[in-house]
Amino acid sequence: MKTVGQIFLTVLSLAYPFLWYYGRENGAFFWLATLMCVLWITRAVTQQTSAQRLVSWAVAAFFAAVLFFGRPDSMYWYPVAVSALMLAAFGGSLFAKQTLVERLARLQHPDLPPEGVRYTRKVTQIWCAFFIFNGTTAALLAHTAHYDWWAVYTGIVSYVLMGLLGGGEWLYRKTVLKL
What is the pLDDT of residue 76? Predict the structure, then answer.
């Protein structure tokens, strides 16, 4: 996917909770679901790895099903689906030779020592716990129809928590582990 398309999809995904929350009463269902579906299909077609294509097709299929069945209430479940896919990516890598976090770490440190490998495995497990918490929270808010809280959580709080987790891990790694 071209850079402009990737940026547009990222911005749209970040703004999605508020676009849906504030537009749900004004006919946003069809245009937002259609736009998200088209963008994810475009991303699926242009991805380089089969895993990236699979994730993109899965998200596109989610929006296609929402449109096909005409279920606007399903739009609240997009953040839950994203958390589930991220959990699958991080959690699935725990059963691979290298975890996702280890592969990322090896981009900067190709000769990662055994203690670094153990550390990246623990960080991967922490991210898995976060995605379970994040998806569960978004699902509970959607299920209980606390849509205002859902918008704030999925549109602000979850991103702040991700930033704190990522930033905290980086700070710990740089100051305590000296990596």
Answer: 94
Q: Give the position of tokens 């689906």.
A: 81
Four-point Cα dihedral 130, 79, 20, 18, nearest 10? 20
The 8 Å CB, 24+ separation contacts for 166-174 are: 169/123, 169/126, 173/119
The Cα angle at residue 64 between residues 61 and 70, in degrees rounded to 5: 140
Q: What CA–CA distance (Å, rounded) separates 106 from 87?
A: 21
How far is residue 94's CA from residue 14's CA, in Å, rounded to a whole number? Answer: 27
pLDDT tens, position by position, 21-56: 888 877 788 888 998 899 899 889 988 888 889 989
Cβ count near 100 (within 10 Å): 19
Residue type, 104: L
* Per-residue pLDDT tens digits for 142-169: 999 999 999 999 999 999 999 999 999 9
CA-to-CA distance for 9 and 15, rounded, in angstroms? 10
Res 96: pLDDT: 94
Cβ–Cβ under 8 Å, residues 121 and 94: yes
Could you tell me how far CA 154 lies from the centroid of its own chain?
A: 11
Phi, psi of 177 (to 5 degrees): -80, -20
